[in-house]
# Entry
Amino acid sequence: MSENVPRAEKRRVKFLMTIVSDLNSFKSIDDAVPVIVRSNMFWRLLPSGMRKRWWLFRLFDRVARDWLIMRLRRGLLVIRMDGIGDMVIFRNSLDDYSEAFGVKISEITILGCNSWGSVAQQIFEGYRVVTIDEHKYARHLFYRIFVNLRVRRINPAVTICDAYFRRTLMADSLARVAGAPKTIMSLPYLNGDTRAEFTWYLSQCSEIIDTGPYPRHEIERHAAFTSLYLDRPPDVRPPALNWRNKEPYITEGKTYAVLNPGSNEHGRRWPLVQFVALATWLADKGLCVVFIGKSEEKVGGNLVSAVADGEKIIDLTGQTDLPETFDIMKHSKLVVSNDTGPAHVAIGLGVPTVVVVGGGHFGCFVPYPESARPKTARFVYEYMECYHCFWRCHKREDPSAPFPCVASVSSEKVRRACEELI
# Structure
C-alpha cells in the first residue's frame, strides 16, 4: 500500500486526506479494492480549496440532510447523474444490485437525469425512477432546495454511486443529502481542481471502492464494482436495452440507415459534409437514409436540406422526441454516429452501428473493450499522439470546428465499416 497524495498537495490543503491504494496492483478487470480516506473534524468543518458556490449550498444541503423523516429507512438509492450514453453503459450492471446488496428490485430507486427521463420507465422497468435537471441542481439554489427535500424523502437505507467521471455538486451532494446510514461511492477521477471537494465528500462515506486507474472502460468499472459485493469474477458484457417494438410511421416499409451527425460538443462532430457524402453513398446502395438529432444540432443544415428529398434521404433533425428516436434506430439496418449518446443507444438496441471516435478520453467510453464489444459494432478512429487530452485540444483554433482527431477519420474507413455490417 502507498499514499497517493502528492506532498505539494498536502502542503496546499493541510487537512486534505490520505488515500490508501496501490494503483499498480490493478492487473485485470477482476481488481476492485476498498479505499481509506482520512480527514479530521476541523478540516471537515472549515475545508480549504472549495468553490464559493459550495459554501452557499452547504448550509441548505445540511438542512435537508437533517430533516427528520418519520418512517423506517429502506431500500437502495442509486445515483446516476449521467448523459444518456453513460446510462446505457451502466444499465446492465444495475441488474446485479438486487443480489449484491440483498434488496428487491422494487426497493431500488434510480435517481437520474431529465434528459433521459422519457425513456426511463421502460429502460428501468420494475425499478422506481426519479429524474432531475442535474445542471440546474448544481447552479440554482431554490431548485436545489426543492430537489434536496425530494431526495431526502426517499429515506434510503443505502446510497450508491459508482460513476468514475462525476461532479461533486451533483452526484456527491445528492448522496450526502440522502442521509443514508451507509453510503458507497467509487473513487472518482481526481485532479488538482476537484481534489479538495471530492475529499470532503469521500471522507464522510461508509465505503469507497477504487475500480482501477484511468483509462479503464466504464463497462469494466461497473462490472468490477458489483463483483466486489457479489464475490465472483466480473461479468463484462455488451449493453442491452429493453425497448418496445414500435415501427416508426415515417419509415414504415422501408429499409433504411440512420445518420446521427450531432453531438453536444462541436469538436466531436465528424464533418457534416462527410455525413452528407455518406448519405448519398448509402442511398446509391439502395438504402433510405434518415438524419436524426436535436434541433440545436442542426448546424450547417442547408447541406442536409440540399440532398434530403423526403424519399431516399429524410431529414428528421429536431422533429422526433427521445422515444421516437429509439424507435427509429431500433428498426434501422445501420446506424452511423459520432461519439455521443445515440451511438450507445443503438448498440444497446442491437442495431449494427458504426461510431466515429476521437481521442479525448479514448478507451473510457469508446471503443468498447473486446469482452464487451458486440459483433454488430465498429469503432472507427485515426490514432494521434495527443490522445487522452480530455478534449482540451491545443490543435484546434476554431471552437466550432471538429477536433483534428475526429476530422482526420477518413470516409473510406467509415464506408468499409458500413460495408462489413450491411
